Amino acid sequence: MNNATCYACDQPATTKEHTPPYSFFPEGQRLNLITVPSCEAHNNANSKDVEYARNVITTMFGTNDVGQQHFADKALRSFDRSPKLLNMTFADIRPVTLHGQTVGAFTMQTDRIEAVMNACVTALHFRDTNERIPNWEVILPNLSFQGDTTEAQAAGWSGFLSMFGQVQYNVKPTDSPDVFQYAMAQILGGWIYNLCFYKAFTVFAFAPSVSPE
């Protein structure tokens, strides 16, 4: 890995960035976290989005005990500090039935979650390959369809997602798999990443490879 420059740009690296963000990890799950060299700007670029993304991801249906406890310990505390954040996050929450259970559904600011995941994949890829790709296509399959989605659109989306499940990934080891796991693959001249948070929230990201500078 090139430790002299930032993982996301060609500026000198003056600090280290945790990927995934440090706040995603509860106490007891913070040993040997992945870091990459970073400039100050990229280390602090998404701090508000990181808090929002962590809070939303830990509310997801199916999240493991670690994620649920992290929501209780950290997300609820952040809402206590900022009622504005609480109201913004759950402004239109309403009950829906999912797998026979009544759960809350709310509109998510997917662009904020995608920004955090783009930074995460950019950092992981730089760490694994020393190749800097700052812009990834981020797919969030856990997020439900909007109310006006047709059956044909839903079927097309499901078919598109199934392609990612057929890829032969290279699973990368992490020291806190209950919080974060990931795998990568190189296919058709590009890269695909499969990220999983709290054993439930999946993220796919893909981008073409670039020529070395």
Helix content: 25-40%
Domain module tally:
1
- Written as H for each helix and E for each strand, in order along the chain, the element string is EEHHHHEEHEHEEEE
Structural shape:
globular
SS elements, strand count? 9
The biggest sheet amounts to: 5 strands, antiparallel
Radius of gyration: 18 Å
Provide the β-strand percentage band: 15-25%
Low-confidence stretches: none
How are the strands of the biggest sheet laid out side by side? 5-9-8-7-6
How would you sum up this structure, described in words?
The protein contains six helices and nine strands. With 213 residues, it is of the alpha+beta class. It has one domain (15-208). The strands form three sheets. It has a five-stranded antiparallel beta sheet, covered by helices on one side. A two-stranded antiparallel ribbon has the order 1-2. Strand 8 (190-197) and strand 9 form a beta hairpin. Helix 2 (47-57) packs across helix 3 (65-81). The longest helix is centred in the middle third of the chain and has 20 residues, at 110-129. It is globular and about 50 Å long. The two termini are 15 Å apart.
Descriptive key words:
alpha+beta; 5-stranded antiparallel sheet; two-stranded antiparallel sheet; 6 helices
Give a brief outline of the structure.
By secondary structure, this protein is an alpha+beta fold.
How would the blueprint of this fold be written?
Blueprint: E1 15-18, E2 35-38, H1 40-44, H2 47-57, H3 65-81, H4 83-89, E3 94-98, E4 101-105, H5 110-129, E5 137-139, H6 151-165, E6 170-172, E7 180-187, E8 190-197, E9 201-208
Antiparallel strand pairs: 1-2, 3-4, 5-9, 6-7, 7-8, 8-9
Helix pairs in contact: 2-3, 2-5, 3-4
